What we know:
By secondary structure, the protein is mainly α. The protein contains 12 helices and 3 strands; from the N terminus they run H-H-H-H-E-E-E-H-H-H-H-H-H-H-H.
Amino acid sequence: MCFLCEAKHSAWAGRRAFLAMAGAATLAGATSALAQVDVGPSSSLRQLVSAEELENAAKQQYAKLLADARAQGALAPQDHPQLRRLRAIASRLVPQTAQWNERARLWQWEVNLLGSKQINAFCMPGGKIAFYTGILDQLKLTDDEAAMVMGHEMAHALREHARARIAKSQGTSTLLSIGSQLLGLGRLGDVAANLGTQLLTLRFSREDESDADLVGLEMAARAGYNPQAAVSLWEKMAETGGGANGPGFLSTHPSGPDRIQQLQSNVPKVQGLYLRARG
């Protein structure tokens, strides 16, 4: 069940109120509505894959994942305290998403919790989020740190990194070489629809990871979560060393001093957004 469906009307009312306030803002106030981190535009290659088809493939794969977890008794019930905690965090992050991708206004966001010792979390195209209990329990994440994980994963979906990676891996050697022969684009869309099972193990580039770090950092700050938590989160990640229980997240999101340093240098850029949100 989409946990935001019932709040759809109130969320839209909040956006209208924000727009009304922005119209009367001073130049200094209006500047805060702009992105504070510098990530540039999303990859143009993503246009070679149908966003709708990929989101539908993700929706089907997510449903299968939940069904399998339910059958194994690993899907957290609706009243699970950790799940309620995650959904409360998401309810603050989701209103920040449309700035980064207009399609996000149409997504049916979902958050679920899976019982597993794996240190893992993800957000599939279309806003399908899952956390594993291992990442919450083993890293002892605070709400601020959990928001940084969620913001990072949401940023991958918002910036359509999976869509671009599929285009690069499936299209470069075939479709891109024939330039203007647009009939090939339909075949690539079919490829995307058949890759639902790979969305959970897709490896992003270093640039994608940096992109998601910064966009997630800003979204979390705008939602009122302490941006310094991004630094403490990755320090905890580095301490785990990616052992046997953590291959999912740490193998695809390697921690290191460069990553931590980049986040630390961007914390001051979003500090004002955080303080304003805390009001």
